[in-house]
Specification:
The complex is a heterodimer of chains A (about 425) and B (about 300). Chain A has about 425 residues and is α/β, with parallel strands linked by helices. Chain A has 18 helices and 13 strands. Chain A folds into two domains: about 160 residues, D-Maltodextrin-Binding Protein, domain 2 (3-Layer(aba) Sandwich); about 220 residues, 3-Layer(aba) Sandwich (D-Maltodextrin-Binding Protein, domain 2). In chain B, strands 1-2 form a two-stranded antiparallel ribbon. Classes of the chains: A alpha/beta (about 425), B mainly alpha (about 300).
Chain lengths: ~425, ~300
C-alpha cells in the first residue's frame, strides 16, 4: 500500500514539476538599465539578413539611432518569412515577448495585438497624427488602438513596365484588359514573358493581383460590405475577378511555371529584361534601385493594371495597406516605454523615414520628394500620389481564410478548382472564422 | 529505516534527476499534446473541450488524406527502395564485386552528411522551373516557355521528392548493412564457397537469414522517419504547389503555427504516432513470421 502511495506521489510530482517549471509566471520585460543610465531593449524584427540591400540599410538606421541616443542600446533578434511569425507566436505564448516587436496593422499579427500583449501607441503619437498618410492612421484595434507605427505604405500591385521592350515590339501601354490580353501572343512570339510573377509561395497572386482585381470588379463599397458580412465573397464580382486570373493563366500571360517559381524570380526576369511587365509590390523598388542600371531606370515605369470588363471600382486603382511597424511590450515600465518610443518614432517618424525613402521605400510619414533621390524612388512617390488605393486581402482577412484562398488560387490555375468554387470556399471560411 | 527501505530510497534519489528531466522533456509534452488534441486552443486563454471533433475533421479533410497518401509513398520508397538498394549496395561492396569500393562507399554515404536544406536547394536548382533541366530543355527545343509539368500534377508532384529521398538516405542503410555484413564470420562464407555455393545461394541461404533482425530494425527506422518527413520537403516545395507535395508533418505545422490551431495540430501529431505504431506492429509481425521460417 505504502509503495503504491509512494509511486503515486512520485508520478503526480513528475507531472506537476514541468508545469511548475514552464508555467511559473512570466518575466516582466527583458529591458535592463545599467548604473550609468543606459537602457538595453530587446527588439524582434522582420529582416532577411542575407538581403544585400535591406540588411545594410537597416544596419545604417540602427547605427544612426544609437549615435543619436547613446543611452539606449538595442539588442536585435531577427526572423524572416514564416519562421518570423512562428517565433513571434512562441514568444508571445510563452510570455517572453521582447520589448519592441515588429507588428502588422491587419490580421497578420492580431493574435499578439488582440491578446493585450502590446501597448496602444496613441498617447505617444498624440499631436503627430496629421504627419502620416491617412491609411497609416487607421485604427488597428477594436477600440481604435494603434498597436504599431507603420513604417511604409505598401502598394502591393504595381505593374512595372519595360517601355523599351514595349516600343521594340511596336506596342503601347494597354488601357484595357482586352488590350493587355491581345499583346500576349506578340510578346511570347518574341520569346519574352508578358506578365512576370513568381507564385510558388502562393501569396503573391493574392496579395499582388487578386485584391486589386476585387477592388476593380466590386469597388470599395462592396469590399467594405463583404468584410462586414453585408455582402458575400462568393458574389459574382469575386467570381469575375477569379475568372480574370484564370484567363490570364490559360492564355499564358504569366511567367511559365509561375506556381513553381520562388519569389524573387519575377524580379530577376524583369531586371534581366526577359519580361515586359512585372507585377509586385512597391517594396521591390528597394531592390530595383541597386539592380537596374542607370539606363534601365530611364525606360522602366510604374503603372496600374488596365481597366477590366464591367469595372465597378476605380480606374488605375491598386491594392495597398499601411505597412508593418514597431510596437512595444505592454509590460514595459514608463522609463523603458519612453526609450522604446524613441526608437519607434525615430524609425517611422521624420528621421528614419527620410533615410528609408532614400533607400527606396515609400514611408507612411509625409515627406516632400527628395531632389537627390534615385529615379525609381521618384517614380514610386509620384505613382503613389496618383493612384486610388483599395485593400490588400491578407491585411483584412484572417490567416486561415487567406491561407486557404492562396492555395485555392493555385488550384484554380491548375484547373483543379473553378473560379466559382474558389469564391465559395473563401466565403465559407470568412463566415466561419472571421465573422463569427 | 531498514536496509531495504534505505536501498529503495537511494534508488529513488538517484533516479529522480533523470526521471524529472525525462518527465519535463518527454512525458509532459506528450501528455499535454494528447490532452490538447481534444480541445480547440489558439495559444491564449483556456482550451475549450471538443471531444473527438478534431480527429473527425482531420480524417475527413482531403488535404490530410492527400498528405497521408504522400507519406505512405515515402514509407514505400523507404522500405521498398532505400532498404533493398542499401542492402544490395552493401552486399556488392562487401563481396568486393566492384573495384574502388571505398570510393563508392564514400560517395553513396556522402548525401546523408549534407544538411537537408542544402540538399533541397541543390535539387531545386535542378528541378525548379528556373532550374537546370528546364534550362537545358529550353535550349534544346528552343522553347522559352518550357517547364517540367510534373510538379503541377497532383498525383505525380511527389515523385521528384521521392527520388531525392532515395538518393539521400540509401547511404545510411548501406552503411548499417555493411557494418552488419562484416559481423558474419568469414569462414562460414568461405566454407560455403568451397562447397560450391554461388553468390546468390550465399545471399539467400546465409547472408539474408542472418540479417533479418537488422533489416527489421532498419525498416522500423525507415517507417518512423518517413512519417516524420518534414525538413527536406519544407525546404524544397513547402508542400506546394496547392498542397500537391504536402505530408502530414507539414499539414500539422501549417495548422498549428500558421493558423494557430494548437488543438488541431496536436490531434494530427497523435495520429502520426498512432500510424507509426500501427505500421511498426505490422512490420514486426511480418518479420517474426519470416524469422520463424528460417528457424
Amino acid at each position: 500500500m505504502r509503495t503504491k502511495q509512494l509511486l503515486l506521489t512520485v508520478f503526480v510530482s513528475l507531472l506537476l514539476f514541468p508545469s511548475l517549471v514552464f508555467s511559473a509566471g512570466t518575466k516582466e520585460s527583458a529591458a535592463k538599465t545599467t548604473d550609468d543610465g543606459v537602457i538595453t531593449l530587446s527588439v524582434y524584427h522582420y529582416l532577411d539578413q542575407t538581403d544585400k540591400t535591406t540588411a545594410p540599410n537597416f544596419a545604417y538606421l540602427v547605427e544612426e539611432f544609437e549615435r543619436k541616443n547613446p543611452n539606449i542600446k538595442l539588442q536585435f533578434e531577427y526572423g524572416y518569412g514564416e519562421s518570423f511569425h512562428d517565433k513571434l507566436q512562441t514568444l508571445a505564448v510563452s510570455g517572453q515577448l521582447p520589448d519592441i516587436i515588429l507588428l502588422y496593422p491587419g490580421k497578420r499579427t492580431s493574435q499578439v495585438t488582440s491578446a493585450g500583449l502590446v501597448k496602444d501607441l496613441r498617447p505617444y503619437l498624440q499631436g503627430h497624427e496629421n504627419e502620416f498618410a491617412d491609411m497609416a492612421m487607421q485604427a488597428q484595434g477594436e477600440k481604435g488602438e494603434i498597436w504599431e507605427l507603420p513604417e511604409d505604405i505598401s502598394i502591393t500591385s504595381i505593374m512595372f513596365t519595360n517601355n523599351r521592350l514595349l516600343k521594340e515590339l511596336g506596342l503601347s501601354l494597354p488601357k484595357t484588359y482586352a488590350e493587355l490580353l491581345a499583346q500576349g501572343p506578340i510578346i511570347r512570339k518574341a520569346g519574352l514573358i508578358p506578365l512576370s510573377i513568381a507564385n510558388k509561395d502562393a501569396w503573391p497572386m493574392q496579395s499582388c493581383v487578386a485584391g486589386m482585381l476585387l477592388e476593380r470588379t466590386g469597388g470599395m463599397e462592396w469590399f467594405d460590405k463583404a468584410i462586414a458580412g453585408d455582402a458575400r465573397f462568393d458574389d459574382q464580382v469575386v467570381v469575375d475577378a477569379m475568372e480574370i486570373i484564370k484567363e490570364l493563366t490559360d492564355k499564358e500571360m504569366f511567367s511559365p511555371g509561375t506556381n513553381q517559381l520562388a519569389y524573387g524570380q519575377g524580379l530577376d526576369d524583369f531586371v534581366n529584361e526577359r519580361a515586359v511587365y512585372f507585377i509586385d509590390g512597391g517594396w521591390t523598388v528597394n531592390n530595383m534601385v541597386g539592380e537596374l542600371t542607370d539606363e534601365q531606370k530611364t525606360y522602366m515605369s510604374l503603372e496600374s493594371f488596365p481597366d477590366v470588363p464591367n469595372q465597378k471600382g476605380k480606374s488605375l486603382s491598386v491594392s495597398a495597406t499601411a505597412g508593418q511597424g514597431f510596437g512595444m511590450n505592454a509590460k514595459l515600465s514608463d522609463k523603458e516605454s519612453e526609450a522604446a518610443w524613441k526608437w519607434i518614432w525615430f524609425y517611422s517618424g521624420p528621421e528614419g523615414s527620410a533615410i528609408r525613402q532614400r533607400f527606396g521605400r515609400l514611408p507612411a510619414y509625409n515627406l516632400s520628394e527628395p531632389s537627390d533621390a534615385d529615379p525609381m524612388i521618384k517614380k514610386l512617390i509620384s505613382f503613389a500620389g496618383n493612384v486610388p488605393m483599395g485593400y490588400v486581402m491578407d491585411s483584412v482577412l484572417g490567416a486561415e481564410p487567406i491561407g486557404t484562398f492562396n492555395i485555392n488560387l493555385q488550384n484554380m490555375m491548375f484547373g483543379t478548382m473553378s473560379p466559382k468554387q474558389v469564391a465559395q470556399e473563401l466565403e465559407t471560411m470568412v463566415e466561419a472564422i472571421d465573422r463569427k | 529505516m531498514t536496509f531495504s527501505q534505505q536501498k529503495r530510497a537511494s534508488y529513488w534519489l538517484l533516479l529522480s534527476p533523470g526521471l524529472l528531466l525525462f518527465s519535463a522533456v518527454i512525458v509532459f509534452p506528450v501528455v499535454f499534446s494528447f490532452s490538447l488534441s481534444f480541445t480547440t486552443w489558439s495559444g491564449y486563454g483556456f482550451p475549450k473541450f471538443m471531444g473527438f471533433a478534431n480527429y473527425t475533421k482531420i480524417l475527413a479533410d482531403p488535404i490530410f488524406q492527400h498528405s497521408l497518401r504522400n507519406n505512405l509513398l515515402i514509407v514505400a520508397i523507404s522500405v521498398f527502395g532505400q532498404i533493398p538498394l542499401g542492402f544490395l549496395l552493401a552486399f556488392m561492396l562487401h563481396r568486393r564485386m566492384v573495384k574502388g569500393g571505398e570510393f563508392y562507399q564514400t560517395m553513396i554515404f556522402l548525401p546523408i552528411t549534407i544538411s537537408p536544406v542544402v540538399v533541397a536547394l541543390l535539387w531545386n536548382q535542378i528541378f525548379s522551373a528556373s532550374g537546370l533541366i528546364t534550362a537545358i530543355v529550353r535550349r534544346i527545343y528552343d522553347d522559352p516557355r518550357y517547364v517540367m509539368t510534373i510538379f503541377e500534377n497532383r498525383n505525380l508532384a511527389i515523385l521528384p521528392i521521392l527520388f531525392v529521398l532515395l538518393w539521400m538516405h540509401t547511404g545510411t542503410y548501406m552503411i548499417i548493412y555493411l557494418a552488419n555484413l562484416q559481423k558474419i564470420t568469414p569462414s562460414v562464407l568461405e566454407a560455403a564457397q568451397i562447397d560450391g555455393a554461388s553468390e546468390s545461394q550465399m545471399l539467400g541461404r546465409i547472408i539474408l537469414p542472418s540479417m533479418i533482425g537488422t533489416i527489421a530494425t532498419t525498416a522500423i527506422l525507415a517507417i518512423s522517419g518517413s512519417l516524420k518527413a518534414f525538413d527536406l520537403i519544407f525546404a524544397m516545395t513547402g508542400g506546394g504547389p496547392a498542397h500537391f507535395t504536402e505530408v502530414i508533418a507539414l499539414y500539422m505545422y501549417t495548422n498549428t503555427f500558421k493558423y494557430y490551431k494548437y488543438g488541431y495540430g496536436s490531434a494530427v501529431s497523435i495520429l502520426i504516432v498512432l500510424l507509426a505504431v500501427g505500421l511498426i506492429l505490422i512490420l514486426q509481425t511480418i518479420s517474426r513470421r519470416i524469422e520463424r521460417n528460417y528457424e
